[in-house]
Amino acid sequence: MENKTIILDGKALAEKLKNQLKNQIQSFKKPPCLAVILVGNDSASQIYVANKEKAAKNIGINSFVYKLEENTSQEALHELIRELNLKPEVNGILLQLPLPKHLNADKAIMTISPSKDVDGLHFLNLGALTAGENRFIPCTPFGIMSLLKEYNIEIQSKRVVVIGRSRLVGKPIAQLLINHNATVSIVHSKTSENDFKELLKISDIVICAIGKAKYIKGSLIKQGSCIIDVGINKLENNKICGDVDYESCLGIAGAITPVPGGIGPLTVAHLLINTVQAYNNSYYES
After folding, report:
1. Active-site residue numbers?
2. Which pLDDT band, with edges at 50, 70 and 90, does 285 fall under?
3. How far is CA 252 from the centre of its chain?
């Protein structure tokens, strides 16, 4: 008898979380405010920013997009960030990545006030994770943790493999899982193929964020494991797929996220959660 794989519906959870936020915001004296900075003309970034702006406005968050030219200097970008840091009505600042190649993203992120860093990428907020203190959690890892919780997927004492070591996803999700008492391994481009395959076969939870279409096949994973696919890849026919070969994992995985409709909507929802948290923090501190 074939095992039935549970489909982890990130889109449904995102809508649930956004509705909860909308009800919460209705009781506020004034709406929270999110400032988004978009540098250049990257088409994917423009779509992402438009989606974030729409999602914010739909639940009652004021969202303002600051569009800067492709040739904007590092200092001009920092000057805008410093201006937004000083505006009390701005609760959260989001710098849309990637930036044009001549700009240093780390330096720009470090210019954002940690109390307004709703993307959770300032070194102080990332460092807080290692101490088990959650200030602003990066939005994609935050969304992954919410999805695991929603479906009652056990983390404590489980073996987890995180594929990819980026500061956006791989490293922070590994730290969050360690904070929840999982045994975590991180594999990356320098991991041997044998080690990679051995870890996949023994891991209860697999989190993949490497940007390689359909890279993880069902034959590589442990029976009954939970597969979290963070990848978004565009195929030649313009269809979207993840880093996991979804079809080959069905019937083997115990649970799996679809792409689209898995982690993507949760990333946006948790940006909004962080923005409301920044609003609440500023309210209690004022």
Report:
1. 52, 96, 119
2. low
3. 26
